[in-house]
Recover the amino acids of this structure.
């Protein structure tokens, strides 16, 4: 049963965006919580604590998803392309052309 839970598509995707989520959650989550507190003039009623925390989590996941698509995936694609480039020969061939 746990195997099915940990191999679910949702948890797999959260694992994929986990680093981005780790980076954005403090700022984004705190902004959501601060906005809710401002709405209630500095005091968040107890009945709204759990919904606000859930909203902070959901907004953080959405922002992490967007950042993953805009920054992380293109960076990973670029890294894969750069792995295939033979920089040693690339630079030595330029040096040979420049010296002629």
């Amino acid at each position: 049963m746990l195997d099915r839970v940990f191999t679910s598509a949702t948890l797999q995707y959260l694992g994929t965006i986990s680093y981005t989520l780790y980076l954005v959650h403090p700022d984004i989550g705190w902004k959501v919580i601060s906005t809710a507190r401002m709405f209630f003039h500095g005091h968040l009623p107890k009945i709204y604590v759990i919904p606000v925390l859930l909203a902070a989590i959901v907004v953080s996941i959405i922002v992490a998803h967007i950042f993953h698509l805009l920054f992380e995936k293109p960076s990973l694609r670029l890294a894969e392309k750069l792995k295939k480039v033979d920089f040693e020969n690339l630079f030595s061939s330029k040096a040979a052309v420049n010296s002629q």
